[in-house]
Every structure is written in structure tokens, then in C-alpha cells.
Amino acid sequence: MGPAGSTYDLRFIDGMVEHHAGALRMSEYVFNIGTPGVGAPANSIWNEQAREIKAMRQWRKAWYPDAPVYPVALRPNGDPNSMADLVRMSETKPTRENRVQGFLEGMIEHHGGALQMAHEARENSTNPTILRLAREIIVAQRKEIIDLRKMLQSKGINKPDHYKFDGLFAL
Length: 171
Description:
By secondary structure, this protein is mostly helical. The protein is about 65% helix and about 0% strand.
């Protein structure tokens, strides 16, 4: 999302809305799949991300009424929408198991991106609302990553990549 500046909060909001929209799509990928245990986290993620999108859209409208409708909100060399995860998940023939594993592993990656964005916001924003949201994102994503790892471990899947965002768990 770039350096701090007068438009940082606008860029953060736009980037995080796009990022959260990716989580909605990823969660929908496993709705009603019939695998015990995966529906609850998918629904929880969807509900929380949708709530935050609504709040951020309201802030954007109130704080930046003259902003362009679709400004660019991507970090250099980064894709906060995490579409790569969705493409990767659908490259193989979907089965119940690879959809679940793909969702769980993809959501760890996706949440890792949100952790990176939230830490960047804590460094670059001075807006108390943005700073509070960034803190809430760090707390929530940390818990969800741990829960997603436990679900993978219960299936006998435990990879080093599942731990690469642990350094971003601290506030």
C-alpha cells in the first residue's frame, strides 16, 4: 500500500476491502461441502470479513468523499486480494478433500497477507480507527491461523509453510 502519507488510510481501506473480499470468495468455496468442522470456520470468517468490509466502506465514504471510486490499493510486488490462492485451489480437479485442504492452507496464506497489511497500517497510519482495526485484524487472524493449523494437523497435514507468519502474531 506504500508509504505513509495523506492518502495512506484511503489506500489501506481499499486494499483491505479487496483482501477481505477474497476471503469471502474463499469461504464460499467450501460452504455446504459436507465435511465436518470446516463449515463453522468458513462461516465465521465470512461473517467477520463482511462486517469489516461494511465498516470500511462507511469510513471511506465519510473520510474521503472526493476520492475516486476505484483507486489502486496494492502494495508493490503484492496482491492483497490473494487471487493466487483461488487459482491454485481450482487448478486441480475438485474433490471434497482437496477443496477442504486448499481452503485451510489458502486461508493461512490469505490471513498472513492480512497480518502484513495490518502491521504496515500500524506503522504508517495515525488514524485511531484504522489503528484499532489493524490491532483487531492481528488478534483475529492470529487465532484463525492457529485454528486452521489445528484442523490441518487433525488430518495429518503439518507443513513448515503453515508457520511462516508466526513472526507477525505479536502486537
